[in-house]
What we know:
By secondary structure, the protein is an alpha+beta fold. The chain has four domains: 12-117, Roll (Nuclear Transport Factor 2, Chain: A); 136-200; 205-369, Elastase, domain 1 (Roll); 373-410 and 442-549, no CATH class. The chain has 13 helices and 21 strands. The strands form six sheets. Strands 1, 2, 3, 4 and 5 form a five-stranded antiparallel β-sheet that branches. Strand 8 (184-190) and strand 9 form a beta hairpin. Helix 6 crosses helix 7 and helix 11 packs antiparallel against helix 12 (503-515). The radius of gyration is 32 Å and the shape is elongated. The N and C termini lie far apart (70 Å). The structure holds zinc ion.
Amino acid sequence: MTFPKKLLVIGLCSYSSALFGQAQAVLSHPFQSHSSLNLSSSHNLGDQPLRELAPGALEDLGLNSRFHLRSKEETGLNLYNDNKIESISYGFELDSVPVCDLEVKVHRSLDGQTTLMGDLPPNPAGQASKFVWADSASVEKIVSQTFVMASLGADSKVLSQEACLYTENGLKPVYKMVVEARGLIYEVVADGNEVYRFDPRHFHANGTAEVYEFNSTDGQTASLELPDMDPSGYLVNKNFQSCLPTTGGRALCKPGDGTANYPFAQKANLDFDYSPQTEISQFTQTSVFAHTNQALKWLKNHGYQNYGTALIKLLPHAVFSNGDINNALYQPATTTTTPMILVGDGDGVGLQNLGTDGDVVSHELGHHVVYHTVKTISGESLVLHEALADFFTFARTGDACLGESICPQDDGRSYCYKPRQCLRTAENDLKFGAAGLPTQAHLQGQFVSGMLWDMNTKDSIPMDHLVTLVLKGIDLLVTNSGYKHFIVALMLVDHSDFDGQYCSKILSRAKSRGLESKLTDVTCDTIVDNPTLTPAPTSSVATPTAAKS
Ligand SMILES: [Zn+2]
């Protein structure tokens, strides 16, 4: 008798729909055109106990008589807990040796519809009459080599092994092993020549990073959670991947693909507790990764939804053009590359501690948030980019000083707006169009971040509401939006989400920061009366350069 290899695969969703009255359609489906396979038609399965009739049914379906069934589990009908399908499951044995990888379940619903799930083992005829298992030394050797090649270390240990038959192109005598490497458990199926299966028997788990919560002025490190970590033990999860530079100036993101200038941080137990004194590179990699994750978590907690699915690559120890290391940078995705955040080390003269101060990557991630809508990197759009990237950092830390650990004590050549203290500050009186407004985009952005900071500290708009206004406001902007668009966007979100209660505060604060000339035709009434208001775009032009820190 022939039978399809996959008789039926039913996902959990089908089960739940089956329980809601579609049982007939879902469960009987594969048998409708193959009546010879229909258990119901060949057996009276309506009233006989399932465990008595299932073995005969499996034989009818083609199970070779040399196999013995190993009953594993039985679940009866239970009308009280809503279990309307009874089930029995089996493994297989051939000459007292178990089949490693197969299981079948026979399910019967209340109306007698019966379904087999799972594959039957292949016919053993034609196989060697006696299976011969490899000696354990050669099996352990190939397992050890596999772990080394997977960058999981040379000290893997086989904790247990069971001789069994693996069903790949017939039946193969193999060992199914539980192997420990660097504190994590793997399941391996191998013989003396080949590893057939090599699966982590653990799932994405949270890790921890021992880093400064904010920066080195904290004095001591704290445990920050690292969500959904990859089981490889490297600094990778679904949002970020830690990379390292190579001598050729490349970013190496997969440790096996080349040689990096620094050792990759890797902790199999996902507890990244490197010393800030003696393991500086790994501590820096961990800091950059942990701080970016922290910043993203905070944004998401405040309603940020546009992260996208792309993995953002992180590059600590980055070197920029002309050997500059006093910078950090966000590079948006291109058609062929994913976004990347690059962080230099600082030379201790211009800047310092860039990799361990959370404000640095927080600012760069802010560019990713703004870049969702504003893609022009010049003029007012660029200043807005820098200002909002700073604002998210100020709002999250509750601290108006950006990068308080990154300014060297010798201020002669430092880049810090407040020498020896802050790269930039939200506590400022800078005004658009007024004397003293810096021309450099980052520094000029302080008039916008300072304006937003004032809306909280002076105008008493709660910080959570202000962050919502800014995050949702960004969604309303266009590729070359400038100051006017931004203020109007804040007012529109205020109108839709906060009943317009902050409108006059937003408008008057914007005017006090020199934006009066930009807002001559904007009033709180025009926002209310004209919900489709579409302000004229600014005159900036697009350039392909990345948004620098
Ligand atoms: Zn920037």
